[in-house]
Specification:
Layout: E1 5-9, H1 15-29, E2 34-38, E3 52-58, H2 66-73, E4 81-89, H3 96-105, E5 109-118, H4 133-140, H5 147-164, H6 181-202, E6 206-208, H7 217-221, E7 227-230, E8 233-236, H8 245-249, E9 255-257
The structure holds flavin mononucleotide (FMN).
Domain 4Fe-4S ferredoxin-type: 202-232, 237-260
Cofactor: [4Fe-4S] cluster
Organism: Desulfosporosinus orientis (strain ATCC 19365 / DSM 765 / NCIMB 8382 / VKM B-1628 / Singapore I)
Length: 277
């Protein structure tokens, strides 16, 4: 039997895109062809063309990004299709993987395995000085060989081969660890409080300063369609996903969050070349 696989992801600043691309290359080396697509370019119904779904997303506030979950909610129901899930994160994943697996199980997907990949924190980088240790570590980390992704690819390839040989997808169902409920609730409470506070400080304070040359990159690249030109000025509405793409991608480094990001670092993904469109 022939099998087609889809790696479906969202990436604000390039980390998840990098991991998705790495995984695709690794799978190709194991003779598994996987189509790569961002949720920004693939209609939910197009996922039906594939037999196996591999999804990837960044962690926001110990959870999957809300808009990502909303997208997943619109996926059509399927009959017993295999599912692999990965996230990229700086520190704390919360129940994000379990949450996504649960949602997609309800649509007929069978979660097989998952992976969390530690990456530089897209929420922290634009507030850090270019010389800071954190930035230097992010810039000099070895992204060329990522053992955990190699192993994940091997698990996916093994599942693909088993299904091809006629094994029932349901027999490959894996367990998603939920951790200790009390500890989870405690951490999640602290996280929600911290990010809730940060959100209030960050969201209303996006602005383009007088370095802006009106190239409109931010308008084109914002996944939330939150940026537009009003009366000749770059304006931010209230639909921001806080993905940090605009601030990192602006060629003039004109986009700021208040004054806290002035002359600070801008992140363009592990290879320094992330271009979302
Ligand atoms: C708004 C926001 C919230 C975040 N919250 C968390 C978090 O709770 N835990 C964590 O480990 N990383 C968190 N991060 C860091 C990202 O998950 C991480 O850097 C990820 O790799 C970014 O992926 P991307 O470059 O594909 O957007 C957050 C980032 C942003 C922008």
């Amino acid at each position: 039997m022939d099998m087609s696989s889809l790696i479906l992801y969202f990436s604000g600043t390039g980390n998840t895109e990098y991991v998705a691309g790495y995984l695709q290359r690794k799978l190709a080396s194991l003779s598994v062809d996987a189509h790569l697509a961002s949720i920004e370019h693939l209609k939910p119904e197009q996922t039906q063309d594939f037999d196996l779904l591999i999804i990837g997303f960044p962690i926001y506030a110990g959870a999957p990004p809300q808009f990502f979950k909303q997208y997943l909610d619109t996926l059509p129901k399927v009959r017993q299709k295999g599912l692999f899930v990965f996230c990229t994160k700086a520190m704390f994943t919360g129940q994000a993987i379990a949450d996504v697996c649960e949602g997609l199980s309800g649509k007929g997907y069978v979660p097989i395995d998952y992976l969390q990949v530690g990456m530089p924190g897209s929420d922290a980088l634009p507030f850090m000085s270019k010389e800071s240790k954190y930035v230097q570590k992010a810039l000099h980390k070895n992204y060329e060989t990522m053992e955990e992704i190699n192993e994940f690819a091997q698990k996916i390839a093994a599942a693909v081969n088993s299904i091809k040989q006629g094994k029932r997808v349901d027999s490959l169902r894996g367990k998603v660890s939920k951790g200790l409920p009390v500890l989870n609730a405690l951490f999640q409470g602290i996280w929600d409080f911290g990010y809730g506070f940060a959100e209030k400080k960050i969201k209303p304070n996006f602005q383009a300063n007088d370095q802006c040359v009106h190239c409109l990159q931010c308008v084109k690249q914002c996944p939330a369609k939150n940026i537009s030109i009003i009366n000749g000025k770059i304006s931010f509405a209230d639909r921001c996903y806080m993905c940090m793409r605009c601030i990192n991608q602006c060629p003039q480094e004109a986009i700021q969050i208040g004054k806290r990001t002035l002359h600070k670092f801008r992140w363009k993904g592990p290879r320094g070349d992330f271009k979302p469109h």
